[in-house]
Amino acid sequence: MKKCLNCGAENKNENLFCSSCGNKEFTEPNDLPVQPQPTVQMNEPAAAPPPMPQPQFPPIPRKPFGVFDLLTILGFVSSIVGLFCSWVVLEPLAIVSSLIGFIKGTRSKGLAAAGIVIAVIAFIIRLFLSLYDNNVIGKWAVEGIFR
Ligand SMILES: [Zn+2]
Q1: Which residues lie below 8 Å from residue 52, measured CB to CB, with a gap of 6+?
Q2: How far is the CA of 26 from the centre of ligand 1 (A)?
Q3: Tell me, what's the pLDDT at 17?
Q4: Which of the four pLDDT bands, split at 50, 70 and 90, describes residue 129?
Q5: Ligand 1 centroid vs 38 CA: distance in angstroms?
Q6: Predicted model pTM
Q7: Phi, psi (degrees; rounded to nearest 5) at 4
Q8: How many angstroms separate the alpha carbon of residue 32 from the centre of ligand 1?
């Protein structure tokens, strides 16, 4: 129940206006638990919020340098060396080695891809030049591209 501030009549809590005089100002309902107002001490500086705990980033584990990464390096080196000698052996070796390194390796994917591209191109060029040198294919096959 709450009391009208104007005439003092008891009103139901849900009444918007006093049932006796029509006033709309009431005392606080007395059958509701009084919420204790937290006392704010203005003269005391507000305590600084506790510093945010720095998120702990676990060190990114370096992926182990595996045998397939060795194949990547082997393939890349082979693709380069094969440009100058023993291309028949080295370029296919470079292609296979780089391919395995690219698929299975955990690092240096770019190097593996480079090894594949270099080895494939070098192999095709050398193959066509070799076929031309041995008169297997005509000059038209290599003309303007490689010579
Ligand atoms: Zn009233």
Answers
A1: none
A2: 8
A3: 92
A4: confident
A5: 32
A6: 0.49
A7: -70, 135
A8: 20
